[in-house]
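Known limitations

Structure tokens in this collection are predictions and should be treated as such. Users comparing against experimental data should check residue numbering before alignment. To illustrate the layout, the record for POP1 protein is reproduced below. The input appears on top and the generated tokens appear beneath it.
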Amino acid sequence: KQAEKAVHQKKEQSKTKCRKARRRHINLVAEFNRRQRKNIWLETHIWHAKRFHMVKKWGYCLGDSPTEKSYRACYRAMTKQCLLQDLSYYCCLELTGKENELLKQLARICSIDTGLTFEEACCLSGRFEGSLSLYRADRYPEDMLGPVTFIWKPRDGSENRQLWIWMHPALKQDILRELKAIFQCSEPEEMYILEPVTTSVQEEKQTDLVLSHGKKRKKEDKEGEKAVPVKKIIGDGTRDPFQSYSWISQTTGIEISDRTMEILRYRLIGPLSHSVLTETLKAASLQTV
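Generated tokens:
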């Protein structure tokens, strides 16, 4: 019995890897992908996890409060310098179709009595971002859905336009359900399933380094090259990965796409915000064919 027990202990100890093996890039990425199956990480998660108390809300892992007393530093940055906030957990819905049809149906879920609408000239041109409150179709001032922000893609000469609507993740399902109802969008016949979801368990096994006969053997892909895992976002905090993320209307031709976690969103606060953007972003040179 003692001999059998010793054999089992050796097998269990061999499964645990040393810190050097766990900190290898190939194993770190696989571990991060495994830990994101229930709660999605933002692009700035590692930075926040080292400095903030993290909370799990709306299917995401978000930074709640700093571990150090940095309130004065944040206030000083907002008033004199620049403070950046990661709002990538906000949900984005993309509407594509004819401008007249979009405005006709969107007018049913908002009212001019509350302020700006989707038809505002400055917002319709795509130069400015607008904000308004959405209601259920033809139910104003009752049955409010919640506040949203939107931005139109500038005109390119075509009658088709693109509209991006941003909302809090707690409001996404209600607003998405209302948009599909007013535009008469149906579920697609073929479900769009992300590949990483079905192969997440297999990928984790493939990315592990197998120790055999005292030599390290790395897993190779079909082409014989080293398989390096990349960060994969499996769905998002408000959408099941096995559900579709695009709906189209056969009558109006309007297409609704869920762009959550595909478009990052940051907020800059402070008098030096424009200076930071000017120094960070560089204009691309136009190339004509």
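For this record: The two ends are 78 Å apart (CA to CA). The longest strand covers residues 144-152. Please report discrepancies through the issue tracker.
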